[in-house]
Automatic annotation (TrEMBL):
Protein name: Oligopeptide/dipeptide ABC transporter, ATPase subunit
Phylogenetic placement of the source organism: Bacteria, Thermotogati, Thermotogota, Thermotogae, Thermotogales
Organism of this sequence: Pseudothermotoga thermarum DSM 5069
Superkingdom of origin organism: Bacteria
A Gene Ontology BP annotation from the UniProt entry: peptide transport
Domain ABC transporter stretches: 1-250
GO molecular function, a single term: ATP binding
InterPro entries: AAA+_ATPase, ABC_transporter-like_ATP-bd, ABC_transporter-like_CS, Oligopep_ABC_C, P-loop_NTPase
PANTHER family linked: ABC-TYPE DIPEPTIDE/OLIGOPEPTIDE TRANSPORT SYSTEM, ATPASE COMPONENT, OLIGOPEPTIDE ABC TRANSPORTER, ATP-BINDING PROTEIN
Pfam families: ABC_tran (PF00005), oligo_HPY (PF08352)
Keyword annotations: ATP-binding, Nucleotide-binding, Transport
């Protein structure tokens, strides 16, 4: 998957006072197969909007998304069923993924039949059993049960199994562990690693949780106010962060050992609204290293080893 110059501008407010918010601004990245690529950042950084555009739930204002070299919008029109098979989604809230009035298995049979993946119930059962095994759930405990009969962790596993029914090559997982009990998060994250190894599935993992991101990602892009501010191998970006925002983000990860407390002061100078509208570096209002030029000029990307950093400090 290749994302090129992706921009999404929302118009907000009434007809008398319209303001434009650039939720995603000139975002560029590639996702290889198989690879776990993470988009990380705080709420409002543009990671979910980027995912929605890739999945076709939102339309971009400008820029393109290519899948296997072809523009995804055109593919969607021409060969929708194939697209639905190849790119699947796993959402944040497993309790709203499934309708509480329907048994979970009905979704599985419906997906297989609607997308013409199987032609008989027997074939469907075989396929379902295989995908349930991949997420560690038995066919017996799954059959004829309603969503409220499963825990949050089990339901999230089931939504991953449902996504696997079409043998996708890419799964877009939007905050898949944020509503799952903390003790089960790593088991879900591990599942993505297994899927990559066993089925060559790539994952776009969207999260604000740097701990799971560090564990699961091959590469990571850190986003702030619609921009990717740092991107590279996850190990390098998270253990040796270069952009001042990535540094602050990493320092916000709770450290249980008081001797190791990071201690950098976070500056909160701008409102969220001011940050979106700033013409220079969006982070200038909070940045401990901000210079005069940062306020008026949008920094370009500088390459530091394998990492791209959008910051004048690396000129
Ligand atoms: Fe800070 Fe300037 Fe770098 Fe922005 S460009 S992160 S304000 S030093």
């Amino acid at each position: 998957l290749e994302v090129k110059g992706l921009t999404k501008i929302y118009s907000l407010g009434s007809i008398f006072s319209r303001i434009k918010i650039t939720a995603v601004e000139d975002v560029n990245f590639e996702v290889m197969q198989p690879e776990i690529f993470t988009l990380a950042g705080e709420s409002g950084c543009g990671k979910t909007t980027t995912a929605k555009i890739i999945l076709g739930f939102e339309e971009q204002t400008s820029g393109m998304v290519f899948y296997r070299g072809k523009p995804i919008n055109e593919l969607r029109k021409k060969d929708k069923i194939q697209m639905l098979r190849e790119i699947q989604a796993v959402f944040q809230n497993p309790f709203s993924t499934f309708n509480p009035l329907r048994t979970v298995d009905s979704y599985f049979y419906e997906t297989l039949l609607n997308l013409k993946i199987v032609s008989s119930k027997k074939e469907a059962e075989k396929k379902i059993e295989e995908k349930l095994a991949a997420v560690g759930i038995s066919f017996e405990e799954f059959t004829q049960r309603y969503p409220n009969e499963f825990s949050g962790g089990q339901l999230q596993r089931l939504s991953i199994a449902r996504a696997l029914l079409t043998d996708p090559s890419l799964i877009v997982a939007d905050e898949p562990v944020s509503m799952v009990d903390a003790s089960l998060r790593m088991s879900i994250v591990n599942l993505f690693k297994d899927l990559k190894e066993k089925y060559s599935v790539s994952v776009i993992y969207i999260t604000h949780d740097l701990t799971t991101a560090y564990y699961v990602s091959d590469r990571i892009a850190i986003m702030f106010r619609g921009n990717i501010v740092e991107m590279g191998p996850a190990e390098e970006v998270l253990s040796n962060p270069k952009h001042p925002y990535t540094q602050l983000l990493r320092e916000s990860v709770p450290e249980p050992d008081p001797e190791k407390r990071w201690g950098t002061k976070v500056v909160l100078a701008d409102t969220e609204h001011e940050e979106y509208l700033r013409i220079g570096c969006k982070f200038a209002g909070r940045c401990p290293s901000a210079m005069e030029k940062c306020k008026k000029n949008n920094p370009p990307y500088f390459k530091v080893n394998d990492v791209l950093v959008k910051c004048f400090l690396y000129k």
